[in-house]
Amino acid sequence: MLLRAMALYLLLLLSLLNLNIISSLGELQRLEHPIRADGSLSALVIGDWGRTGSFNQTDVAFQMGRIGEKLDINFIISTGDNFYENGLKGVDDKGFDDSFSSIYTAKSLQKQWYSVLGNHDYRGDVIAQLSPALRRIDSKWLCMRSFILDAEIAEFFFVDTTPFVMHYWRNPGHSTYDWRDVAPRDTYIANVMKDLESALKESTARWRIVVGHHTIRSVSIHGDTSELNQLLLPILQANNVDLYINGHDHCLQHISDMDSPIQFLTSGGGSKAWRGVFNSNRDGLHFFYDGQGFMSLQLTQSSVEVVFYNTNGDALHKWSMSKEPLSAI
Ligand SMILES: *[C@@H]1O[C@H](CO)[C@@H](O)[C@H](O)[C@H]1NC(C)=O
């Protein structure tokens, strides 16, 4: 019994080491992901997906495999709502296989996934979805609440946005939210904000990318998330964040902030889509697609390129930007 426990512990330790988890001075856990020898990186971004393949989830997965191969991606980002309707029931919920392992089967997608939780994930057993036990079932899976991914030229700041939204606390309706390790809300979100702000201030990365489930700007059914506009956006604007990437609205969007260089990118088209809602927004809308799809992100020291794709793998919208090259020392 003891030997078995020790062996499991060793396995867990090894799987953690494999991810290059390094100690951090701040409160947010920090992961490192190596990038290409030439200093560039590419990734795919998908959100709002886990529906056992239905609502075109399988078609999106197929095209992700194709584009992932073409771009030789380093990793995949999930913007949350990983398992519908109510997250996972436990670590042995077969939804994990039916909606994840058995769907994203392409060779190019067998890379590390970095996931945040969405509001639907909070309606299940959150501790299970975050559990290392799932990594032993499928090693590409990784989901945490708020954390930092250091990818050399870029730092990704993953933020657990569900607890910010007051509605889920006050008017949960028929849904139950798993607030274990979260409640009380005020302390939790104050810590997230403090940790995020100090991590952003210390960041020396070329690109700063914040990932959360909920929208800051959206022209679709959920619109802007007022709690994030009040509490999170000022921190992002004051700390040279380049991109805010989210899901929640089941569509693809690109909106530019009027008051800062931040680009708001929604990649929430992983399965059920076509809500048929469009509400104009005060900020600059570049692109809105109400159907299924995903996004790619390609970064070098001096450039970023974002492309949105539909279920045929057609590139629907491309946006790129350059930064002055770093001067040689
Ligand atoms: C699947 O995708 C096709 C092509 O975009 C679309 O016409 C169809 O309505 C989608 N099906 C569902 C269930 O959303």
Write a concise synopsis of the structure shown.
It is built from 9 helices and 14 strands. It is of the alpha/beta class. The radius of gyration is 19 Å and the shape is globular.
SS elements, strand count: 14
- The computed structural class is alpha/beta
The bound ligands are: 2-acetamido-2-deoxy-beta-D-glucopyranose
Order of helices and strands: HEEHEHEHHEEHHEHHEEEEEEE
Enzyme class: hydrolase
Binding site for Fe cation 2: 81, 119, 213, 248
Pfam family, one: Metallophos
InterPro entries: Acid_PPase, Calcineurin-like_PHP, Metallo-depent_PP-like, Metallophosphoesterase_PAP
Structure explained in plain terms:
The chain has 329 residues and is of the alpha/beta class. The protein contains 9 helices and 14 strands. The strands form 2 sheets. Strands 1-5-6-7-8-10-9-11 form an 8-stranded mixed β-sheet, covered by helices on one side. The radius of gyration is 19 Å and the shape is globular. Mean pLDDT is 93; it is low at 20-25. 2-acetamido-2-deoxy-beta-D-glucopyranose binds at residues 55-56, 273-274, 291-292, 310-311. Belongs to the metallophosphoesterase superfamily. Purple acid phosphatase family. It comes from Acorus calamus. Residues 1-26 form the signal peptide. Pfam families: Metallophos.
Key structural traits:
single chain, 329 residues, alpha/beta, eight-stranded mixed β-sheet, 14 strands, 26% helix, binds 2-acetamido-2-deoxy-beta-D-glucopyranose, metal ion binding
